[in-house]
Amino acid sequence: MGTADIQINGLDDIKTSRIRRSILRMIIPIILEGVLQMLASFISMAMTGKLDATSIAGLGLSVRITQIIWAFFKGIAMGATIFIAQAYGANDRKKLRGITIQTLISSIIIVIGIQQILFWFAPKIVTLIFSAEGALLDTTVTHLRAVSFGLPFLVIMLVAAGIMQATGDALTPLIVAVVMNVVNVIFSYLFIFGGLGINGMGVKGAAIGLAISQLVSAILYLYIFFRKKGLIGKVNKSHFKLDMNQIKQIYKVSLPSSMEAVFLQIAVIIVTNVVLGYGENHLAAYQLAVQAEGMFFTPAMGFGVAATAFIGQSLGSKNIKLAKAYMKEICIETLLVTSIAVIALVFFPNVLMGLLTDKVELIEIGVIYLIVTGLIQIPQNIGTVIVGAIRGAGYSKAPMIISAIGIWGVRVLGAVVIGSVLKLDIIWIWIAIDIDLLVRLIISYVMYKKKNIYENAIIL
User: What compartments host this protein (predicted)?
Assistant: First the structure.
């Protein structure tokens, strides 16, 4: 039951229980999908971990590059969800179908161009970003070229999943993710190590396995969209016509979200390089601790998506009371879930780090990070919800501005000054990250109140 269902029933007295059920129907699949992705990541790491050090390092560098591309199109999908949520809430099926088609077509055209650039200029790109050479350069280029063929399918998956979540359907993306990850694990194993008549290809095999799983995922989404009763319906010539006016509208809203995601990935690379200056143990501990923290951040991201979808739907249907009711309930549920995260991170960090490594020196470093980051979980997650609500109301540039001030003005600048200039203890970098999240919460709340998003929503 989504916002549209509540609206159709004409309820003046909005029942909290019905709103809660709508939120949980979206949040639970998103959380399960996040857990599934994390489990699949663990399995993939275990498989690639059996390769030589150069292969592992090369794969890591390749992933850093593709993550930037992933972030760009994740942002495009995020921007499209604002249109979709509002159109769905207004029950405007024609607009919903048009936005879906134009976002898919334009994204595919752009990513094909990016894929060609990656394939033909991979050596120059890798050298420019990481200054890799020799065997490491060759391995990174091999993986990057192979994985580039899956990028068009990845984009279809990202856009389709975002669109479905914007309509309140998080179950379908979960099912597709299950299929994708099972296929990825099976084919990655076969192509990495060999079997069933297939010769093992090492790091190249990992890329091929991933590309195949992305292809399967894209096929499933296209079938879901273009089936008789699908979101788009049966295929016809009109589906392949570019509507430049509509595309301009989509990207005017989507590009700020896209740039926000890309800049975040670049910031991650910069902070990671600063942490590396403290030594490989600190970097390894940081990466493991971030992974442990990620287990608790997935629900927060889900609540942020829910805020964008349900508030966008409510304001699209011009039901301000319903939008406020959703926001209140999402914040309450976020606080409840986040409280569990705070307890786990602050009081049981040794247990969490122990699940990821048995090296005492890494556990000791990672524990400090988890405690410091645990203290900021509530501001971080409430800030994520507020930003999601601002997006749902049609304000796409505000989240980018908030992110730029916090991430670049506090986190990156702070990390560089602390680690590279002042040479302070690494705990001060963790504190700078906390300050970034607190600053973003304050700015988000001020914008949320100042713009009065419910009365001044931008209906796209």
Answer: Cell membrane
